[in-house]
From TrEMBL:
It comes from the Bacteria. Residues 169-207 are annotated as: Disordered. This is Glyoxalase.
Amino acid sequence: MAHIDSVTLEVTDPTTARSFYDAAFGLGDSLRFRTTDAPTTGFRGYTVSLIASQPANVSALFDAAVAAGATPIKPVTKSLWGYGGVVQAPDGSIWKIATSAKKDSGPASREVDQIVLLLGAADVSASKRFYAERGLTVGKSFGSYVEFDTPSSRIGLGLYKRRALAKDAGVPSEGSGSHRLTVSGDIGALTDPDGFAWEPVPVGSQD
């Protein structure tokens, strides 16, 4: 099964971006930064979800992100599936913070149980096949959604129809230019059918 080590956000100012994410989410080396001036407009075709264990943690993460400079897209609210909200970071990336738990079981914290990268796909079946051929095992697959098994990784990976992903995030689906995102893992250097780039795990990185 494939292992995902980290996600690299390509930003105009890595120092400023690191300061924001440390203050908002505290994800450590799971999140890396690289300088770029590549043009990008609108929806970049992906979201990152932070999965927490209880509603209080979702609210704590959401509030910390907004206090650090994020823009609320969807306020935290209860739904049939749980509790969550969406923010846009100052660098333009979109983050969903959620839990399936309906009630709190302890004091609030900013602990993140899992990070899930959701890639918007033009053709979910084609992208699913692309990743399966490179060693990723499909865990869940229904309709326009695919979730891969990455049990050894803190970072999970999924595919979602691009338009549906944008709707879930609460933003228009239109966008062009660079994704401003690179995934580091053990499936080698490649670019998927939707233009998302992968690279080998950085030297010295720890599992």
